[in-house]
Amino acid sequence: MREVDARVNAVLLQESCMSRLAQIPVVLIPIHFDRDPANMMATSSILRSVVLRPFITSDFMTGLPAKPGADLPLEVVDKMVKAASEVAGISRVLYDMTSKPPATTEWE
Predict the structure, then answer these.
(1) Is 33 in contact with 91 (CB distance < 8 Å)?
(2) Residues spanned by the domain of 32
(3) Does residue 101 fall inside a structural domain?
(4) pLDDT digits (tens, 9 = 90+) for 8-35
(5) Strands 48-52 vs 26-29: parallel, antiparallel or unpaired
(6) Which residues are paired to 27 by β-bridges?
(7) C-alpha–C-alpha distance, residues 30 and 91, integer Å
(8) Which one, 9, 48, 62, 66, has least CB within 10 Å?
């Protein structure tokens, strides 16, 4: 997960987009997409998915997700997803679009 976090943050820095965000938590979840249904019960998976949560706020009491194509250029979002997907053990990259409220600024 640290490698995914480092790669995503590197893309944002390289593309001069880091200042648009208050934070971008990267969350590892134990979900392996695209598994062969025939083998699901036979072996356990070592692959996981990650969730990117680019978040915009001025006070951390309320906030909005960074919308692809509006708050972050689509090319930057694509580069973040590609960089995260290239890390060994990652099955899928998800993008959290939940505002606060109802969600928290981090991920629960």
Answers:
(1) yes
(2) 2-95
(3) no
(4) 999 999 999 999 999 999 999 998 887 7
(5) antiparallel
(6) 51
(7) 10
(8) 62
**Residue 97, both tokens:** 């679009």
24, 55 Cβ separation under 8 angstroms: yes
Helix, strand and coil percent figures for the chain, each rounded to 5 = 30, 20, 50
Q: What is the pTM assigned to this prediction? A: 0.88
CATH of the domain at 12: 3.30.300.10
CB atoms inside a 10 Å sphere around CB 97: 13
User: What gap in Å lies between CA 93 and CA 16, rounded to an integer?
Assistant: 22
Angle, nearest 10°, between helix axes 74-85 and 2-14?
150
How many of the other CB atoms lie within 10 Å of CB of 99?
Answer: 14
9 vs 76: CA distance, rounded Å = 11
